[in-house]
Each structure stands twice: as C-alpha cells, then as structure tokens.
Amino acid sequence: MKEEDAYRWFERARWHDNGGKPYCPVCGNLEVFSIRRRRFRCTAKECKHEFSVTSGTILANRKATPKNERIAFGAAVGPPAGGDSGPAGGGLDSPDGQ
C-alpha cells in the first residue's frame, strides 16, 4: 500500500458521511480549504479552525505515517471471524463497508 492510498483511506473513514470530503470538526462547515500538505482550514469567519484527518482522534499528534497507522489499525482489528482475510487489515479496503 502506498502512503497516498493510506491517507485517502483515512479521509474516507474520517469523513464517510460526506463522501470522504473534509469538513470542519468544530462548526461542521462544509467549506474548507487546504492550507498546506494534508492540513485544512475552515472558511467560516467566526471559526477559522485548522485541522487534519487525524485531529480529534486517537491518532492525533502521532509521528507514524498514514501507511503505518493503517497497517497498525488493520492488525488491531484483525481478520473477520471465520477465516483468513489475507494481509493485516484485510477486509478494511473501504471504511464505509462498500
């Protein structure tokens, strides 16, 4: 798995209810813009919150790359009951179960 693929997986998982598109975790504003690599800022005048895909999660402030976090997440969850699902995190190809 490539680093960018892992990052996209986290985006889809984090913002699954908005089709994988980021929105402000503070005010819920759907209008955000990218301010630098993998960081976003809310456009709401009274908010302007800066966030990333891991902000407010157990993965916030971690040094691990999205790829390594994805692998660890898959290993922690393990394969589904009743059979081998292949590599660590098998069955987790789509965060929305599709």
Task: Give a topology summary.
Blueprint (H helix, E strand, L loop, with lengths): L2 H12 L17 E5 L2 E4 L7 E2 L14 H12 L21
Antiparallel strand pairs: 1-2, 2-3
Helix pairs in contact: 1-2
Short description:
With 98 residues, the chain is an alpha+beta fold. It has helices at 3-14, 66-77; strands at 32-36, 39-42, 50-51.
Description:
The chain is an alpha+beta fold and 98 residues long. It has one domain (3-76). It has 2 helices and 3 strands, in the order H-E-E-E-H. It has helices spanning 3-14, 66-77, and strands spanning 32-36, 39-42, 50-51. The chain has a 3-stranded antiparallel beta sheet, with no helix packed on it. A hairpin with a 7-residue loop joins strand 2 and strand 3 (50-51). Helix 1 (3-14) crosses helix 2. The longest helix is centred in the first third of the chain and has 12 residues, at 3-14. The two termini are 19 Å apart.
Highlighted features:
three-stranded antiparallel beta sheet; alpha+beta; single chain; 98 residues
Q: What's the pLDDT, averaged over the residues?
A: 75
Radius of gyration, taken over Cα atoms and rounded to an integer in Å? 15 Å
Task: Determine the fraction of residues in helical runs and give it as a percent range.
Answer: 10-25%
Could you tell me how far the N terminus lies from the C terminus, measured between alpha carbons in angstroms? 19 Å
Structural class: alpha+beta
> What about the largest sheet?
3 strands, antiparallel
Give the helix tally. 2
Count of the domains: 1
Overall 3D geometry? globular
The run of helices and strands is: HEEEH
Give the percentage of residues in beta strands: 5-15%
Low-confidence stretches: 86-91
Strand order of the largest sheet: 1-2-3
Quantity of strands, as a count = 3
